[in-house]
Design goal:
133 residues, mainly beta, AOC barrel-like, 9 strands, elongated
């Protein structure tokens, strides 16, 4: 096994929220479809669906699964990331985990965990400890 500590940025290309449950009191529920570009140790495109619990003050909790397709250290393939995070006071932060068994191509068998964070409107910074078989 070979583990690499990877870093880079994520640029959001599209962000399409759709409310699906908006009660008169309590948190609203949104589904968000987004596309992203990863730069740095991962050069890839991502497509993700988030489920978001949105509070009246604009803060939120979200989870999602994202397919990342591109290269890691020149190795082509794809893998899935399971995201979990929060939005509060214009700051997004969270964690992601590679979905076991989701790697394809030269990335088959990869495992990993990482973090991400951003100020709204700016590129996110991310880290990912990725283990290759």
């Amino acid at each position: 096994m070979n583990t690499r500590n990877l870093t880079g940025t994520i640029a959001v290309k599209t962000w399409e929220p759709r409310p699906y449950d908006v009660p008169s009191t309590g948190l609203a529920l949104n589904e968000i479809h987004a596309t992203e570009t990863f730069h740095g140790d991962i050069e890839a495109e991502g497509t993700v669906r988030f489920l978001q619990a949105l509070r009246a003050d604009g803060s939120a909790t979200f989870t999602g699964i994202e397919r990342v397709t591109g290269t890691v250290g020149g190795k082509p393939g794809s893998f899935l990331l399971m995201d979990f995070g929060t939005l509060a006071a214009n700051k997004v932060e969270g964690t992601f985990t590679v979905v076991s068994g989701s790697g394809t191509g030269a990335l088959a068998g990869v495992e990993g965990r990482g973090t991400f964070g951003a100020t709204l409107g700016q590129h996110a910074q991310w880290t990912l400890d990725l283990t290759f078989p």
